[in-house]
Amino acid sequence: MKQCYRAEVLDKHWLTPSMIRVEIGGGDMARFQSSGFPDEWVRLVFPADDGKVTMPRLVDDRWQMPADLPRSRLRPYTIRQVNKEATSVTVDFVVHDGGLASDWARLARPGDEIGVTSPQGKYAPPDEAEWIILIADATGLPATARILSEKKCNRPCLAHIEIPDMDDAQVDLDALCDMNWYTGFGSTPKATNLFEIAKSVQVPAGSGYVWVAGEAKATTAIRRLLAEERGMPKDFVTAIGYWILGKSRD
């Protein structure tokens, strides 16, 4: 059953020049249960205009804001780490101008209230996959990092990650996977070159699994590329649109 947990900021620090890490716990988070997917995400419930968090209600299996209370806004974010002993979760925020979540993360302080919904995820390589490729822009980097840190198989793994600048590369991941870093995220007319990056990736021989996360139109195009030009079965590709150019996403 889906649930929504009232929580607060426990800690915060800059992870790289373009990413802020926030630890969220307290409140109801002792009841939080992971979905088991390493790319799991939740909807964070941000304070309404009155500075307080209005918790959503589940209506027909969808989260809705009560009409009679100040409206909080929801945004989907990856759980970078579940800290069971501390009954908290870690969330990494890409910093950019004019974003609700980005602005909140910049100003967040310990004790600030926030809501967290139940998680869900999609990363599921088939048993017969002989290799794994991860393709993501900066918004998919936290999920990529968790997938690699929780990797439970010895299959060869390659990652292709688009970040704003090389200072944003999380070099500790290089020991976990064959990492390929690309710069320019956020500074091109369409904000991302993820599709062009995917086109340049050489798919190994044999049967493998590709996980893609980033801007929605780009991930859709990459899914089509892998199916139509590379001949990959749909069950061997997971492509997730984390954001949409020019739009906010609840």
What topology does this entry show?
Elements: E1 4-16, E2 19-25, E3 41-45, E4 57-59, E5 62-64, E6 74-78, E7 81-83, E8 88-94, H1 100-107, E9 113-117, E10 131-137, H2 141-149, E11 157-163, E12 178-183, H3 194-200, E13 208-215, H4 216-229, E14 237-243
Parallel strand pairs: 10-11, 10-13, 11-12, 13-14
Antiparallel strand pairs: 1-2, 1-9, 2-8, 3-6, 3-9, 4-5, 7-8
Defining key terms:
single chain; 250 residues; alpha/beta; Elongation Factor Tu (Ef-tu), domain 3; Rossmann fold; five-stranded parallel beta sheet; globular
If you had to describe this structure to a student in words, what would you say it looks like?
The chain has helices spanning 100-107, 141-149, 194-200, 216-229; strands at 4-16, 19-25, 41-45, 57-59, 62-64, 74-78, 81-83, 88-94, 113-117, 131-137, 157-163, 178-183, 208-215, 237-243. It is α/β, with parallel strands linked by helices and 250 residues long. The strands form 3 sheets. It has a 7-stranded antiparallel beta sheet. Strand 13, helix 4 and strand 14 form a beta-alpha-beta unit. Helix 3 (194-200) runs parallel beside helix 4. Belongs to the SIP oxidoreductase family. InterPro entries: FAD-bd_FR_type (IPR017927), FNR_nucleotide-bd (IPR039261), Riboflavin_synthase-like_b-brl (IPR017938), SIP_FAD-bd (IPR013113), SIP_fam (IPR039374), SIP_rossman_dom (IPR007037). This is NADPH-dependent ferric siderophore reductase. GO terms for molecular function: oxidoreductase activity.
